[in-house]
Structures are given as structure tokens and as C-alpha cells.
Amino acid sequence: MLSAQMTEPKQTKDMLGRSGLIPVNEALHILLSHLEGIRTATESIPLTEAFDRVLAEPVISPEDLPAQARSTMDGYAVRAADTFGASESMPCYLNITGEVQMGTAPIGEVKKGCCYKIPTGGLLPMGADGVVMLEHSVPVDETMIEIIKGVGSGTNLIQKGEDIAQGKRALPAGHLLRPQDIGLLAGLGIAEVMVTRKVRVGILSTGDEIIAHTEVPNPGQIRNINGIALAGFIQRAGGIYCDYGIVSDQEEIFLPAIRKAVKENDIVLFSGGSSVGVRDLGEQVVEALGPPGILVHGVTLKPGKPVLIGLSGTTPIFGLPGHPVSALVCFDFFVKPAIRQLSGQINEPKLPAPYVMANLARNINSAPGRRDVVRVKIIKEDKIWIAVPVLGKSGSISTLSRSDGYFLIDEDSQGITENSVIKVYLFQ
After folding, report:
1. What residues pair up with 92 in beta bridges, in sequence order?
2. Chain-centre distance of CA 291, in angstroms?
3. What is the pTM of this model?
């Protein structure tokens, strides 16, 4: 939590009573600052269940990997000094006095003027300090080879502890475990890891006009798109969801429902009650659930301007716009970072989000002081990627379904001209 001495940015009210719009980056900073130091509980789980989980503590290597030097090539384990100067015109000759078998320790020692046959991954026998590749040898008979290219000490080997040494940090706390990380830990013989518990996110879909997606709507009714779409986004972000269904936007029904969700979850989302209207109770309800209450109401973002961000104790509450595209854009910009923060995941990703550089197919205008999120479809023409804007209202969910990604027009721009090269962030 922020200290009491820290002040929030002043938010002026417009003629409808809304707080003044805040830039996206500033709104995100306010949110994450309030979540600083808040983490979900930890739990120990089997390594086999640890994919896409976040480490709660660093993993220290309990042993050297590999435990002994191994060959990285098929060939012959040699004393490197015996091969110095060897070439096709002046080869050297070595006696084959042994062979390394996979899965067993080598027997004996490579003596001067001798060598052992060795496969890729085979343990290096005593006396040897290098491996001659099979391609750089010529058989003389079953007991002797001709070396046509010399090797130095350590050539074609992975040394003991070279992958990772005993006592060194294998992975840091906050690391999101990928398949290759699971493989590393398996190689170290680690059977269980300590991770943060998955962030639990409660979803409420508000509005008396909303019906289940399985029902046939009457005039004026709308199927619940946001609930099921947000559930998928939560799972993809590494969280788990609890769907509280469709909740009436009458205060006596809405307030107890969201109060229950706040008690049972790490994050709560409600959609449909963040804009200004006679029946929209989002702002009043978040204030009632505080302190600290509302942090942000309205950002310089299109679509997604009316998003509401609040905090009840240590539980973030997001009032997402009712229009599906706006709701899902706000999820990406605000809710997903909150899930990462509460799970303890290292905030700065090592790599940027997947993107392609593409030529914009048409002019796109933008109002200064607002960040626009423009959906696009990517096509290839003459080996060049072309980004074709997928235009539509924020209530048109098909614009997301038909899009491959989006690009951003920042607050200080009034638009982007046709054929400009843009960075298109790809939907994952």
C-alpha cells in the first residue's frame, strides 16, 4: 500500500460528474503502486504441474549439471596434446583402446597415444581432455584411427557444472515457468517447486438487459459476451476465474454480490457499470467497498475510456465498459498487469510482446491527447506485411475476432498516414 503521505493526481470533474481522464501509463502506475508488495499465498506443487506457474522463491542448483564432463559429438576421446598439428597432409595415429557406453561410467584410462570411441552425451573417460569429431578421423583398422584435424583441450565437451554449477541460482523468484525451465529443473532432480497461488478473479456481468449466451434474446436484451470472453482472458493471463453470473444493476442486489466477490477473490471485475448513467452504480459501489476506494475513473484510451479502477483493502476492483471490445482492451492494459503483479511475476518481460512491422493500408486519424487501439488484419503482398484496419464500434466483438492484432496511436499523435510502417502487436 502507498503511504498516507503520498498524494494522488488531482482529478477534475466534467459536466456529468466524471473524473478527468488520466493517461494510460499514469493510470497503470497508480494501480501497480497500490499493489506493491501484495502477493498471493505460496504453495508447493509437483514439477509436473508447474508449467505456467510463477516461482515464489529462487531455485538454487543442488548439484552440478552435468555431474561429469560429457562429449557433445560422436567421435573419439583423446589427449588433446596427442593431436596437436594433425592435418590431412600430416595426420597422427592413435590406438583405439576402449569405448564409452551410454548409461555407464567409462572403464580404464585414455593413455598417451590412445583414444576411446565416444558417442554424443557419453561421459569423458579419465585421461582424456578433448573429443575428435568422427568426421575428422579416418579408420586404419579396428584398432587404429588416423586423425586429420587436431583439437585443443576442452574441444567438443561440456564440462562438469558448465550448464549450471552447484549452489548457483538456476531460476529467480518471480519467473514464469516455461517448458524449457521445467526441463532444467528436471535435470537437477528437483521434484517440487514453491510457487505463488494462481490469482483468483471474480467476474460479474451487470445489467438487467443481459441474458445467458445460451438463451434467445427478446428485443432489448443482449447475450452475455463479456463474462465468457473475460474468463478466457483470465486463464490465458495465468489466473483462475469464478463467474458470479449476471447481476442486476439494482443497488440492493449489486452491492451484496460484489461484496461477496471481493471477499472470495484476489481481483474482481464487473462489466457494464462503469459509464455514466442513471442506473450505473459502479462508482458508488466501489466507494462503498473502500477504502481506499476509487483510484481511477476514465482514461485517455479508445476504446476503453470509461474504465473504473478501485481498491477495497488489498483487492483491486475493475469496472469495465459494457461494450465487449472496450472491456477486453481494458483487460489487456490494466487487469493483466494486475494479475502479473499479484502473482509475483517479474514485471519487465525479457522480450517484448510478439509483433510484426507492417505497412498501414489507409490513413487513420486520432484525437490528440488520447491513445487509440486500432485493430488490424495482417496480409502479405509481394513479401511485405500489410496492416488493414478492422473498423467498427466498441460493441462489435467481431472486430476482435477478425483481427490478427492491433497497433497504438499515442496521445501526442493526431493520426498515422497510409503506408507508414507500424508495429502490430499480435493477439496470442
Report:
1. 147
2. 31
3. 0.84
Q: How far apart are CA 255 and CA 282, in angstroms?
A: 9
User: What span, in angstroms and rounded, lies between the C-alpha atoms of 157 and 151?
Assistant: 11
How big is the chain, counted in residues?
428
Dihedral (Cα; 386, 391, 397, 400), 10-degree rounding: 20
Domains annotated on the chain, with CATH: 24-40+199-342 (3.40.980.10), 42-65+162-196 (3.90.105.10), 70-158 (2.170.190.11), 355-426 (2.40.340.10)
Backbone phi, then psi, for 336, in 5-degree steps? -60, -45
In the predicted model, is pLDDT for residue 313 greater than 80?
Answer: yes
3-state secondary structure of 384: strand
Sign of CA dihedral 342, 348, 351, 353: positive
Query: Is beta strand 114-118 parallel, antiparallel or unpaired with respect to 75-78?
Result: antiparallel
pLDDT tens string 60-83? 999 999 999 999 999 999 999 999
Residue 109, helix vs strand vs coil: strand
Please state, in angstroms and rounded to a whole number, the distance separating the CA atoms of residues 336 and 198.
13
Which amino acid, one-letter code, is at 110? V
DSSP states along 404-427? SEEEEE-TT-SEE-TT-EEEEEEP
Which cell is 137 given?
578421423
Angle, helices 282-289/251-264, rounded to nearest 10 degrees: 50
Count other C-beta atoms under 10 Å from residue 406's C-beta.
21
CB contact at 8 A, 144 and 91: no
